[in-house]
Amino acid sequence: MSLFATVAEQLLFQWENQSVLEIVAVTLSIGYIFFASRASIWCWPCALLSTGIFTFLFFDVNLLQESALNVYYLGMAVYGWWHWRGDDNASQRPIIRWNMKRHLVIIFCVAVVALVSGWTSDNWLNADFPYLNGFTVWFSVFTTYLVARKVFENWFYWLVINPTSFYILFQKELYLTCALMVVYFVMSIYGIFEWYRQWKKQSNEQSFAMPG
């Protein structure tokens, strides 16, 4: 049997055996990335509901670390909604950008945390893919914060995180979730162009609003 046929068979099997809650959570996750790529505040209600469901599902199957991570995502969904609404609740906050020096410093710090986490997972928990998984978890934590702060560069991080997650999930034969990572990756590319367009538009509007 070819690799494609094996993957297709596993996808069908996982789809037939997943719960209604899983289907709802995956659907809401797709809704989240769609609205986020358009810089729409409605991404956060989708995130709140999907992460709430995933928190319960992971806890139910004793994946406690994944459940704890989704509790963090749950909190960030609330924070993201509050922050994007702006101070007057009448208009959304603008997209912002961080300089390269700031990104490099934070990348170094998160990488150190990911290495320590990977070492701990490898030596104490005997986890699979300890360093790669540490990389995806901690950079996802950081990058989710960037989304909540409406930092344009968040999409470039996802372009690295999603393929790495795809590799780990593929090795574990979780093909349905792999498909979700493909959707995330494609929407991240769209997000780069859409957020840049909106950032340029708001920059031009600010320029016109400035007194001559």
Keywords:
single chain; 212 residues; mainly alpha; globular
What does this protein look like?
The chain is mostly helical and 212 residues long. It has helices at 3-17, 20-37, 43-60, 64-85, 100-123, 130-149, 154-171, 175-209. The mean pLDDT is 84.
Distance between the termini: 70 Å
Shape: globular
Instruction: Please provide the count of β strands.
Output: 0
Element order, helices and strands? HHHHHHHH
User: How would you state the average pLDDT, rounded?
Assistant: 84
Computed over alpha carbons, the radius of gyration is 19 Å
**Tally of domains:** 1
Sketch the major β-sheet.
none
Strand content: under 5%
The total of helices stands at 8
Helix/strand-derived category reads mainly alpha
- Contiguous uncertain segments of 5+ residues: none
Percent in helix: over 70%
Write a short abstract of this structure.
With 212 residues, the protein is an all-alpha fold.
Would you spell out the secondary-structure blueprint of this structure?
Elements: H1 3-17, H2 20-37, H3 43-60, H4 64-85, H5 100-123, H6 130-149, H7 154-171, H8 175-209
Helix pairs in contact: 2-3, 2-8, 3-4, 4-6, 5-6, 6-7, 7-8
